[in-house]
Amino acid sequence: MGCINSKTLSRKALLKLVQKRNAVTIIYDEHQEIMNMDLSETSRFSASTGTLQRSQREEEELLFEYSRVVLSDETGSCIPTNASYIDGFKDPQAYIALRTPDSESTISNFWRMIWQHRSKVIVLLDLPEENQYGASFWNSDEESLLQVGKLSIKKFRAHQNHPSFEIMSVLITHEDGATLQVSQFLFKNWQRQDVLPSECDVIDLIFMARLYNESAVTPETLKGFKSPVVVHCSDGLQRSMVFCAVDIGISSISNRGKVNLYSIVSNLRKERYNCLYDANDYGMCYLLLYYYCMFYM
Known about the structure:
Blueprint: E1 9-10, H1 11-19, H2 23-35, H3 56-61, E2 68-72, E3 78-86, E4 95-99, H4 104-117, E5 121-124, H5 135-138, E6 144-148, E7 151-161, E8 165-174, E9 179-187, H6 199-215, H7 219-222, E10 229-233, H8 239-256, E11 258-259, H9 261-268, H10 279-295
Helix pairs in contact: 1-10, 2-10, 6-10, 8-9, 8-10
């Protein structure tokens, strides 16, 4: 297996790698090395892994217990979720990644999670299927109100438009009068399989989400607290983790002048089980970092 340090690339080396004729082969071989890594020392799952054949849904529901997000309800009881803490470039638990909520219970837990973590930015990377629980709330053309226990969640219409994403304001109010203002990014052009967004649109999304997260002023931020950015997609394993990997990679390039995507993705796979399992997603990470180096530096 290749040495992780040998895969650290300067900006110039990254550009040269992606421009090589055999770049696809190199990148796909690199991804295969990651997939062959032994994670047995960290593999304490939230569900039994003894079954040889698991459905896609069952595979998506497996989590590492040490990175699982666990909430508390009004009575103090623990509520396990399908979300995982993800470390950022410098900050631990810089993100929370999960599958898009698709039921009454998961949507309720989603907003409890936002409130308890004081998250100011949500990034939604797919358009959820129409369902009786979430359809109206995710619709950016409508204002809506949702009650979750002691929380009242009011969503306003999109207040800023971009060719590929919208930004909606969400106000969460606790029954004791405390509030939390949240910006929800709804990315519209990322299909799961054969239609990918432009590199420019994804990088714009990353920088806009950063801007909103860093500029939001709350009592917590004034004390130095950094809330996690919540990122979700249909399975919580592909698009969400591409977003995290590229955001971390961009920070590495801008701060250190070099990046090691191999190391970044290897670490992400220790935090969210089976994430970035598709070599095409790994290749997309390289393309996005290439585009950033070529046109944003």
